[in-house]
Design goal:
This protein has two domains: 128 residues, no CATH class; 130 residues. The protein is globular and about 70 Å long. Helices cover 45% and strands 3% of the residues. The longest helix is centred in the first third of the chain and has 20 residues. Strands 1-2-3 form a three-stranded antiparallel sheet. Keywords: DNA recombination.
Length: 366
């Protein structure tokens, strides 16, 4: 069965039978997660075959995982491991990013449980003698916002508006309130505004803000959050959104399109406008980073670490700002803000000895 030419059919059958389920929890996963899993698994099996291995999907083994990890990390010992195997794939000279490797390994870990082999896939660090290659960094070390990368946000969105007004409105809301792509597409501007006195008791509002946006449709896990309306630019973005969504319960998706079609339209228009990592060094998600940095500045009155602020900021003020940024981004833990604002530890280390503890929490997972 090692040379089974029907491996694609077999793999597709396994994926179809299990791919809707969360890896750990008893719930369904999103379409984007299912798509990413499927692409990652097919890519892994194609890579194995290109390296001279032809396992049937049900016969994936620890040795195959080891080969993939050696390939992804550009391990010079891979050629020795391959031996006389006929590889059709040029071996890498540089490793993939830690984030990519961890993601691909997570797909394989889930897949192993589907075929009755839980525990087959080990922690990434167990596969390499250089663990730093597979350790993800959850702290922003460079500013991913558009402005910080020399992009004129308003001019760029105006250019998008010439292609599609709906996508332009979605980008404005992403900039103004930190919305993700799906959240922006599904956002209903006419019914979103909430005065501070109407916030749930579990959501302690900062006293300086008198109005918030209720954001739930399209959020990860359906988690409700509230983003403060702080500036006239935010008001203008909301007013534009209301013009685009003409009826009280209309969202910002183009009428007549399904959610998937609207999400694809967003991606296609952004790509057409050249707002990509490859072309300009930014992505639409960079607007969420921009929102986070601007909100931090509004609260702390200094720029965040990723924008090069003075690390000698009052620790209590910094903690409060990190917590509020995380909350308005839709996260419960303030450490998440490190992925957007940078970690103060990275900057403070220049001013302290190696054994001096850092006053602010260390990096957390976004």
């Amino acid at each position: 069965m090692a040379n089974n030419s029907d491996w694609k059919i077999q793999l597709d059958a396994v994926i179809a039978a299990h791919n809707t389920r969360h890896a750990v929890r008893n719930k369904l996963v999103s379409h984007s997660t299912m798509d990413a899993r499927k692409k990652g698994l097919f890519r892994a099996f194609r890579t194995l075959r290109a390296l001279g291995f032809q396992p049937a999907p049900a016969n994936l083994s620890g040795a195959h995982i080891d080969v993939l990890m050696r390939y992804w990390t550009a391990d010079p010992q891979l050629q020795t491991c391959l031996g006389d195997a006929s590889a059709k794939l040029q071996l890498r000279t540089h490793p993939y990013s830690a984030a990519y490797i961890q993601q691909q390994l997570s797909f394989l870990r889930v897949y192993a449980s589907w075929i009755g082999k839980p525990g087959l896939v080990r922690d990434a660090e167990r596969y390499t003698s250089h663990p730093q290659l597979v350790r993800r960094t959850y702290c922003a070390q460079i500013d991913k916002g558009w402005t910080g990368n020399g992009i004129d946000v308003d001019a760029s969105i105006r250019a998008v508006a010439k292609i599609d007004l709906y996508v332009a409105a979605q980008l404005r809301m992403a900039m103004a309130f930190g919305l993700r792509r799906k959240e922006a597409v599904m956002f209903r501007p006419h019914v979103a505004e909430v005065p501070d006195f109407a916030l749930p008791s579990s959501c302690a509002a900062i006293s300086r803000y008198v109005s918030f946006l209720r954001i739930k449709r399209g959020t990860k896990g359906g988690r409700l959050r509230f983003a403060a309306i702080r500036t006239q630019a935010q008001r203008d973005a909301l007013a534009c959104a209301k013009e685009i969504a003409r009826f009280p319960h209309s969202d910002l998706g183009r009428p007549g399109l399904t959610l998937k079609q609207s999400l694809d339209l967003f991606s296609n228009v952004v790509r057409t406008a050249g707002l990509t990592k490859k072309t300009l060094g930014v992505t639409p998600h960079g607007l969420r980073h921009e929102f986070a940095g601007d909100l931090y500045f509004d609260i702390a009155s200094v720029q965040p670490p990723v924008r090069g602020n003075d690390p000698c900021v009052d620790p209590d003020t910094m903690r409060a700002a990190y917590h509020e940024v995380a909350r308005q981004l839709g996260h419960n833990r303030p450490q998440i803000s490190n992925a957007y604002l940078g970690s103060p530890c990275l900057h403070v280390t220049e001013h302290r000895s190696d054994d001096e503890p850092c006053a602010i929490s260390t990096c957390g997972e976004p």
